[in-house]
């Protein structure tokens, strides 16, 4: 197994600096092999179209530790049902992937690499198909937008109700969302900002970054209104509470990274009596702390909860100043806490470094990031 994992990582170094070429070759080959597959993808392939390839590649890199990632792969298979992916499609994708890897790697590719990727992909497909076949839920849920609140030019908080079937999720998880009225076949992940409830209502915090990557977020922020129908796919993610733990809790949120942190706090309200919970909530400017008032309402009702807001660019802010990772460090140590971190990739990276410097055990840290680490 060690040699197998080594071959995968070693061969990946031949192509990782040329992902655009790898992606272009993969999709060109895929649609040549089966033109009908093009209908499963967005009209504009930029960014969104690469999600399946990225998922396959990421999963392949985990095959060296199959036990740890078995549930991840099964969840990935369940999630891919929303794309209407079938067993025969996996075979076609495998052919296209190997062809793209060989072409992109060039003379550095060899038979050992080829066989390692074949075996890895076969193992991935087996687990993903098993996850898809065992799932009794629908591929996605239709959901009606109930409320929509704007917070500045680029942020919105909206609630939706899943229709027809109960949608099971845990606080801290995320789901894929599609707005077929505006951008059909474009899916993007958003954390659920509330704990599970009997009303089947989910809350999302959405910020649009602009550009092609923000098409769906832009529609959800600027165009979506109550009564619109969205599609919501099965929940994923492991940034969930460990109810068996007696450790106090540190939550660090940046921007709309508040969403899963808010959900975790709501779940804690339902059962916590003994664990202190410290929430650090950061943004660049005060107006971006859109959820602060709601958090302060929770603090007034629950003495075990504290909230510390911070701004990094407004020196007149009546609170902590600086990047949220630095603010958290000033309040430490956090060595004996369960830690939850959510926000942009740079913010999460900085906070994880701070927690590592504080010698927080890695198994006590869970995080969710919007972008690649």
TrEMBL record:
Chemical reaction(s) catalysed: 2 nitric oxide + NADPH + 2 O2 = 2 nitrate + NADP(+) + H(+); 2 nitric oxide + NADH + 2 O2 = 2 nitrate + NAD(+) + H(+)
Family note: In the C-terminal section; belongs to the flavoprotein pyridine nucleotide cytochrome reductase family.
Cofactor(s), names only, from the UniProt record: FAD; heme b
FAD-binding FR-type domain boundaries: 138-242
Entry-linked SUPFAM superfamilies: Ferredoxin reductase-like, C-terminal NADP-linked domain, Globin-like, Riboflavin synthase domain-like
One Pfam family here: FAD_binding_6
Domain Globin per the UniProt entry, residue ranges: 1-133
Listed name of the protein: nitric oxide dioxygenase
Gene Ontology molecular function terms on file: 2 iron, 2 sulfur cluster binding; heme binding; nitric oxide dioxygenase NAD(P)H activity; oxygen binding; oxygen carrier activity
Alphabetical keyword list: 2Fe-2S, Heme, Iron, Iron-sulfur, Metal-binding, NAD, NADP, Oxygen transport, Transport
EC number of this enzyme: 1.14.12.17
Keyword Heme on entry: yes
Domain of life of the source: Bacteria
